[in-house]
Design goal:
The chain is of the alpha/beta class. It contains 8 helices and 7 strands, in the order βαβαβαβαβαβαααβ. A 7-stranded parallel beta sheet has the order 3-2-1-4-5-6-7, sandwiched between helices. α1 packs across α8, α3 packs parallel to α4 and α4 packs parallel to α5.
Length: 273
């Protein structure tokens, strides 16, 4: 076989690590568990108050039950100093190995309209827009920069980021998050181009409407769920397990030549008019 076409050698199961940004719930939590069940050790970054730590603890315990290594960090993934602390700790733990998978699944943004005409409704502020874009889009670039600088992403590594249909559609109060998703897809394209010579791929995943904590925070989510259930040819919503299984498959060597894409994992939801 041509050496350039041969997939990278699959590392031993006990040396494969995945880094999940947003690991305590939703797509990140489900993917962390699925990758652990497939033989990956998991580094999870999440930000949860004490009242919500039970969800993170459950995900961590499910990973540990698979027999894989697990390291969870309850920190702000968009904080540069915290990012360095996580990477310092993981660089020592990996012992010279890198991350096979980086999943960006951070859902933390402000849901308010850009312009308000009624006195009882607040418009979004510049600080809130900047924060939403920084957490939900730009942080992917900064994590990738630091991982590359430390040699923790290597040939065969997969970068994946969760986008949404809201990145190209108008939803009331979703403007800043929509802008973040559009920026995230743009960052994926740029990373795909820049990292292709190193054999590292970057793709966005656009799941169908999924009943996650992030969706439940969107005003009018009940209508979104009803609409998606009617529209999807499979007759149901997408689940976090659907997406997690896809990521496990995508992490394998067979996807090496696919990069810079928005990958639809939606049961055909997007193709139905």
């Amino acid at each position: 076989m041509d050496a350039e076409l041969a997939p990278p050698a699959e590392p031993l199961a006990d040396t494969r690590w995945a880094l999940i940004l947003g690991a305590s719930s939703g797509f990140g939590g489900a993917t962390a568990v699925a990758l652990a069940e497939a033989g990956y050790n998991i580094c999870g970054v999440h930000l949860d108050m004490r009242s919500r730590m039970a969800g993170a603890d459950e995900i961590r315990n499910r990973i540990a039950a698979t027999g894989r290594q697990v390291a969870f960090f309850n920190v702000n993934a968009a904080d540069p100093e915290k990012r360095q602390e996580v990477l310092d700790a993981m660089e020592a733990k990996l012992g010279g190995d890198g991350f096979r998978v980086l999943l960006h699944s951070l859902a933390f943004g402000t849901l308010q309209p850009f312009v308000t005409l009624e006195g009882d409704q607040k418009r979004i502020s510049q600080k809130q827009v900047d924060m939403t874009l920084d957490v939900m889009a730009h942080s992917l670039v900064y994590w990738t920069q630091d991982l590359m600088a430390r040699g923790l992403l290597r040939r065969g590594s997969r970068i994946l980021a969760m986008t949404s249909g809201g990145g190209s559609r108008v939803i009331p109060t979703y403007g800043a998050v929509s802008a973040a998703k559009a920026a995230l897809e743009s960052h994926i394209r740029q990373l795909a181009m820049e990292l292709a010579p190193q054999g590292i791929t970057a793709n966005a995943i656009l799941a169908g409407v999924t009943d996650t904590p992030a969706l439940r925070r969107i005003p009018g989510n009940e209508r979104i769920i009803e609409w998606a259930t009617r529209r999807n040819p499979g007759g149901r919503l997408t689940t976090t397990a659907d997406v997690a299984r896809f990521i496990v498959m995508w992490a394998g060597p067979g996807s090496q030549w696919a990069t810079g894409n928005v990958l639809h994992v939606d049961g055909g939801e997007e193709i139905v008019a």
